[in-house]
């Protein structure tokens, strides 16, 4: 069931499943996606005793559109508001792609709210697109149809059986007023807030990367760079055969990696409720 937390300029949609007394795990999707991106992962985390929260990004899903800005910093503020609304955590925050930048930024800005990070195919560093890349990004993010074509191309592993329905839901959502513009703004964000940030992250982190992720010239090298720059203990899990969406292409392997990390950082029954 959808619930909402009010933030300056609008509201953020989320859904809670699992053990109400278990450690809090917040799952944030990437740009141009919905919180149902975690539909093949969240049930297993909930069954393992965690309080699992999936959230829509601002401008996406059931969250409000029409915000004044859509930066990585805005996303971190939204996550902070959500964790506080849910009792203050501390939470393990899972961020994919764009949210792979908001999650570590949150941990630096609000360290009391975060006890661990999982960064899935993260854009966790500033980006400097050349003019051709900027033009392509504007084109891809100009319509739901073009975004859908690009989104499909980011899957290099097996697509789940319900992929057509998920993609149709994304495109339907993107046709709503203000949502395509929100995704476009996020996609063109150069993420200046991320400059020099990763060394300030002190909580344990897991970097999950699809070995065939087309968003990075060398996915393993990107994962290793992010892990090396993080200031706290970090490990890497490469998902063979997966592209940019390992949590959808290879959910069993991704869930196994998540649960292994969660049990290390926030074991259920440890006396800490969230």
Automatic annotation (TrEMBL):
InterPro entries: AB_hydrolase_1, AB_hydrolase_fold, Carboxylesterase_BioH, Epox_hydrolase-like. Keywords: Hydrolase. Residues 25-256 form the AB hydrolase-1 domain. The keyword Hydrolase applies. SUPFAM superfamilies: alpha/beta-Hydrolases. GO terms for molecular function: hydrolase activity. The keyword Hydrolase applies. This is Alpha/beta hydrolase.
């Amino acid at each position: 069931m959808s619930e909402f937390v009010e933030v300056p300029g609008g509201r953020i949609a989320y859904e809670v499943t699992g053990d109400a007394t278990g450690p809090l795990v917040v799952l944030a999707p990437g740009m141009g996606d919905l919180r149902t991106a975690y539909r093949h992962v969240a049930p297993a985390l909930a069954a393992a005793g965690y309080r699992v929260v999936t959230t829509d990004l601002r401008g996406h899903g059931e969250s409000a559109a029409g915000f004044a800005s859509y930066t990585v910093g805005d996303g971190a503020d939204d996550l902070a508001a959500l964790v506080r609304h849910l009792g203050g955590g501390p939470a393990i925050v899972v961020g994919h792609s764009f949210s792979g930048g908001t999650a570590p930024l949150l941990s630096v800005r609000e360290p009391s709210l975060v006890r661990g990070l999982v960064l899935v195919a993260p854009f966790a560093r500033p980006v400097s697109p050349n003019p051709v890349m900027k033009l392509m990004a504007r084109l891809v993010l100009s319509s739901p149809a073009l975004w859908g074509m690009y989104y499909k191309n980011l899957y290099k592993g097996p697509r789940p059986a319900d992929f057509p329905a998920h993609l149709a839901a994304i495109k339907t959502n993107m046709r709503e007023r203000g949502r395509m513009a929100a995704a476009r703004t996020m996609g063109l964000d150069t993420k200046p807030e991320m400059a020099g940030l990763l060394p300030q992250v002190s909580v344990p982190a897991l970097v999950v990367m699809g070995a065939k992720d087309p968003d990075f010239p060398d996915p393993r090298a990107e994962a290793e760079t992010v892990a090396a720059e993080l200031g706290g203990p970090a490990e890497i899990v490469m998902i063979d055969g997966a592209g940019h969406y390992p949590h959808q292409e290879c959910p069993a392997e991704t869930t196994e990696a998540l649960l292994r990390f969660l049990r290390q950082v926030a074991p259920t029954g440890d006396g800490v409720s969230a």
